[in-house]
Write a structure and sequence with these properties.
Blueprint: H1 10-30, H2 36-69, H3 77-117
């Protein structure tokens, strides 16, 4: 597998990327007004990000173990990774709908009820 050349100055690039470029990119996008399908995709991406964060490590470890023990051909690898990515997004959506959002909605209703009683 081809790798990028390593340099003694890679740390400067990494630091600049983490402290300047990425925050700038986020701040530019924070003021953007989106509508239609783009808005729907942005909202779904925001909602599904935590479930993906919760389960992706396990999926990566299972995949790495399978690759280590059985191996996957170079030609099949992009297809397998694509299929696993789609499956991970689908499973993450199920986790979002059935595991993540119900307790959040219950907590929100409970908090709203307490706010109305305390007025």
């Amino acid at each position: 597998m081809a790798r990028a050349a390593q340099s003694a100055y890679d740390w400067i690039y990494d630091a600049a990327l983490a402290t300047v470029s990425l925050p700038l990119l986020v701040s530019i996008g924070a003021g953007a007004a989106v509508t239609g399908l783009t808005r729907t995709l942005c909202e779904l991406s925001g909602r599904i990000s935590y479930p993906i964060h919760m389960i992706h490590y396990a999926a990566v470890m299972v995949f790495a173990n399978y690759c280590w023990s059985r191996g996957i051909g170079v030609k099949a690898m992009p297809w397998v990774i694509g299929a696993i990515t789609l499956a991970l997004v689908g499973f993450s959506y199920l986790v979002l709908v059935f595991y993540d959002e119900p307790p959040r909605q219950a907590a929100l209703k409970s908090k709203q009820g307490r706010l109305l009683v305390n007025r």
